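HUMAN: Quick job: go over this next protein and say how the chain folds.
***
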Amino acid sequence: MRATSRHLSIVACLVLSGPAGAEDPMSAIDWLSKSVTTPSALPRGSAVVARPNPDEPPVTRGAAARPITTTTLDQINLDTLGLVPAAKSGLPHELWGPAPAAGIAAAIHGAATDTVPAIQSLLATLMIAETAPPQGSDAQGTVFLARVDKLLDMGALDPALELLNLPATPRPEVFRRWFDVALLLGEEDHACAQMRKTPQIAPTFPARIFCLARGGDWNAAALSLRTGEALGQIDPEMATLLSRFLDPEIYEGEPPLPPPARMSPLILRLMEAIGEPQPTATLPVAFANADLRPSTGWKSRIEAGERLARTGALDPNVLLGLYTEQRPAASGGVWDRVRAWQEFDAALTDGNANEIALTLPVVWDRLSAVELEIPFASLYGERLAAVDLTGEAADVAYRIGLLSPACETIASRHAPRGIEESFLTGLAQGRPRAPTPSQLASAIVQGFQPDADPGEDLAGLLADGRTGEAVLRAADDVTNGARGDLRAVSSGLALLRKVGLEQTARRAAMELMLLERRG
């Protein structure tokens, strides 16, 4: 299992993200494997968790209509768990206040991930922060599961896995997510071993069959398949897939199976095992992690890395490694990006200002077309600021610097030319002011006024102590600003600054100005 201690680096990585795409992605709850079922009896001291309806939206879990459940007094509330203490995340410890768990889960579920990178980073920070549980916590881990699911929606499997590792005694819905994350990370043997070591987890027949086979007990796997079919516990499509998985020789020469009607990590692994690997490009971004394994072809690994880098789920240095792994043998599409990146990187490494001036606009244009500006800026922004460039290359380098972690330092050393550069330079230092180059810039100035009003709704949430919900609402306001709602830009930025998230507000405003993001 990928147990790591890089909690703060996870947040840093997620700062350097880009939007996931124009279409609403399939939510994690829609693609999780049906790998466990709630057992009729659990060991003493374990919590009882109602099995969710797979057709029900995840935000309704823990609602009043659910059966009342009990938990032992010494059992930790899952909603308290996190990877980064609130003090280090910039968030208050009493983040959620008196809000009911179902309401918080609904707000988390509805938070947009196809937004500017700074807001994606803020969302990820909210998901991993260690805070007090909401006063309306239902002891079912409703908020905890919603936070994990949002990380899965973003493709951020490493921090999701770290969160899922925190409960000492995993409950079925926690283990269900842990099992699927392990499958996507190529750790299926570990997942199966953990399933065997966790007696309070009752696997469904498909998961049990898969793990029995992975453990070499093919006879028991075949018997479980026949039993599951006889009991009606395995649907026909899954039964056919498991049959081919257990007895591939019988099906030699048979045509490939049709694409699965509903993909899950377990099905993805089974299809791969029978020699019919499925493309992940059209699947939710979390599935791209499965293509990062060394056994995958270079082109597929690059494309998977690009998808994950756009959502902030991949460290920019990993993307750099993928782009520079070898020389491209073809042209067009991804290969043009690889070639442009490598030519620029070589010029910068050599310190050749003329070559940098020639290659920088090209690589920036290539990467901007696929929304990879932030990973590139994080790697090269500060280094470019030290290169003596003129003309177009100098303009591009300055904008890259403003999108990098060193933006404030770079802006303080820059002599702006024209209204737009003057505005951007002031914004990088937290002092945007008129004259402004656009209506968007004017809305940003309004959000940075000392007495900026976040609006009655957001102010009301703050007054009630529901800071987390207010921040989520503000994040959506900034996202809507990217789609043209300028009043929302002002109110969202004002709220972020009011609760102490000044750097997030600055980065989000800068990205609204410099990146073409429309959701």
About this structure: DSSP finds 26 helices and four strands in the chain. Residues 334-412 form one domain. The radius of gyration is 25 Å. Confidence is low (pLDDT under 50) at residues 1-23, 39-74.
